[in-house]
Prior knowledge:
Blueprint: H1 2-7, H2 10-21, H3 24-28, H4 33-40, H5 42-55, H6 58-62, H7 64-74, H8 77-97, H9 102-119, H10 121-132, H11 142-147, H12 193-202, H13 210-226, H14 234-237, H15 253-270, H16 279-300, H17 302-319, H18 331-367, H19 373-415, E1 423-425, H20 430-438, H21 445-454, H22 459-462, H23 476-482, H24 495-500, H25 502-507, E2 512-515, E3 524-530, E4 533-538, E5 545-548, E6 562-568, E7 572-579, E8 583-590, E9 595-599, E10 602-604, E11 606-609, E12 613-618, E13 621-629, H26 632-657
Parallel strand pairs: 1-2
Antiparallel strand pairs: 2-4, 3-4, 5-8, 6-7, 7-13, 8-12, 9-10, 9-13, 11-12
Helix pairs in contact: 2-15, 2-19, 5-8, 7-9, 8-9, 9-26, 10-26, 12-15, 12-18, 13-15, 16-18, 17-18, 18-19, 19-20
Amino acid sequence: MYLKIITNEKIAALLGAIMWVFSGLFIYRTGHINIIQSVSYMPLFFFISEKFIRENKAVYLLLTAPLITVSIFIGQLQSTFYILLALAVYTLFRAVQEKRNIIKTIGVTALSYALGAGMSLIQTIPTMELISNSSRSGGMNINDILGSGTFKPVNLINMLFPYLFGSTQNNTFIGTQAFGFWTMSYMAIYTGCIFAVVIIISLFTKKTPVFMKFIAAILSAAFLFSLGANFFLNKYIVMLPGFNLFRNPVRMAEIFAFFSVIFAVCFLASAKSEDIRPKAPLILCYILGAGAAVSAVIFAFSGLILKIAEPKITQVITNSVLNTPFHNYDVDYYFLKFTSAFVFIIRHVFFQSLFAAAAAACVYLFSVKKINRDKMITVIAAVTIIELTVNGFNFNETIKTSYYTSVPHTAEFLQKRPERPVIMQWDYYRNDARIYKYGYAKGSYEEHLKKRDMIQPNLSLFYGITSYIGYDPLGYGDYFKYTDEFQTANYSGDIGLLKKNRKTLDHTGVNFILSPVTLKLEGLELVYNKESVNIYKNIHARDSVYFSGDIKDKNDYSRTEEFKILKWEGGEVAVQAKNNRSGYTVIMTRYYPGWKAYVNGKEEKIEKAYPFFCGVKTPAGESLITLKYTPVVFKTGAILSLLFAVLFCAAFFYFRKK
């Protein structure tokens, strides 16, 4: 709808919708449903803004308020912040361009943002409390913000070749770990090769509309901020309110991707054939064609090339890769990875060059008036569909396995456990980690897949305040804040580090460890193995309910004479425990504001037991301990959200009547 209203071209709008929905941003975020949901609202935000500008009716812009609320509820505040920032700039520019009342535009925009944020207080107030009790309570410095999840200038080439550095999903990635776990973030700026083709050709057009110059300015600003520490001005930008709250500047690439689609579609829909210098697309077509031809020859003789280069490759691997502290494989493994990456990248360059050459050829034929605009856009749309399909399948080779094979196997295992499972993923299971933490211990996989869509994996889930579905989630943040042992933990999955921190796992009740590789550590018993899913039982893990005389002493632990879990849900825990002396019964649920404890019906104070669990003083003998979560912040947020909802309704009817 948005592209149609700004271009008045149905085919061009359809092309833009295809580019957006099947872009690298959506493909590589397959494991982060909340981010996909958040950015999915972006076209609707801009559609509403454009309607406001064109019809000069404030009621349209006011409708962004409930959209803001929904976006915040989704749980990806960083994306929402960047979207609203871009929307404000866009709305102000269009108001100036169309000579609308600037004061009115700024006022209604500010009112909409305030109402949208106010209606979301039912979530944001508890989230603020959560952050104050999490590993992020100390805030972040500039290095934290700019040093994690950033682009490098060379990543600009990924607009045309998203897999130029290989793919982490099929173990062919040979680029630098610029993004930590988010290595595939460089795909975020890929929306189809047509954008790269158009951006180059547009540099040589005779006339460029003001609107497209504005879009180009936003593209430049978004990419420069995505560079993080690699662009000198960013250290000043992140001091501004809002920017200082989030790390991973690469998420600004979501804005880049959206406006790249707008730029490409607007160019194809509005450029006149006489304004395009034919030599530009023709030369580009020759260059891309030559690239396709050269890569095809290299691909055909890749076996011979690698055979000749094998001694040199082996020497480089031996001198560099194997000298790093976190390797678990030998030279043969790295040689296989390199050769696989070489073949994969060459094949990718061939196809992308071919697709881009076809798109450039269409623009050339349009510039010399051999085909009309509709035929040009139709052919480019067909090429784009094929291109995005090929690259989408490339990325999802492993995603299909990890999401639809590994997760159900883990769910199957957990359903059969009599004890309360607390599982920790290890090594390379980053894509599956969130799903495992949020659990499929009860009910069918399909039922919980639906629940996961409803309860988004935001901070509330990641830091494991409560167990929503069937077992306790333990995030890395818990270890970083509460234990010294994991302060040096890294995300590379070093098996030696796991051995070093076994006591921490024991003390926090991690009774199962998931690993894709074989673990030969004392106390770990392999209890499940199916299709590369290895689950080990930690026989030294503490019980989820135990007795302690001194809850501050991490070594003061003894099993209760007997205990029985009567209920263990997100907001209530009930256990029956029997001890031969008075002391503390420790229940392994997170110590957090809002919990109340009752022993045999009488309220008791909850104390923090090492490292972050609930300790309740109990007498000798048999006791019924009940924990209930009754957060004040939730009620406060609910009342304020309701108040702002009433204000929104009043404002809506006021502007509608006016």
